[in-house]
Amino acid sequence: MQDLRVELDPLHPRATALVSFRVLESIYDKLFAIDYQQDGQIRPMLAESIEALNSTTYRVSLRKEVRCEELTAEDVAFTFGAERMLAKESPGFGVGQISFPSMSAVRATGRHTVEFSTKAPDPVFVKRLTSYGAGIVSKSAYLKAATFDQWARAPIAAGPYRVVEAVENRYIRLEAHEGYWGGRPPLKGIEFRMVREPAARVAGLRAGDFDIITTVAPDQFDILTADKRLDVVGGDTMSFRALVYDAITNEMLRDPRIRRAMNLAIDRQTIVNSIWRKRISVPPSHQHPAYGALYNPDRTMPRYNPEEAKRLLAEAGYNGAAIPFKTVGNYYTAELIETQAVAAMWRAVGLNVDIQMKENWSQVEDRLGRGVNNSSDGTYYPDPTASFVSRWGSQSNFQRGGYWRNDRFNALETILLTAQDPVERRAVYQEMLDIFDQIDPPGTVLHSLGEFFGKRANITWTPTPTGLMDFRPGSINA
Question: Whole-structure pTM over 0.85, yes or no?
Answer without folding.
Answer: yes
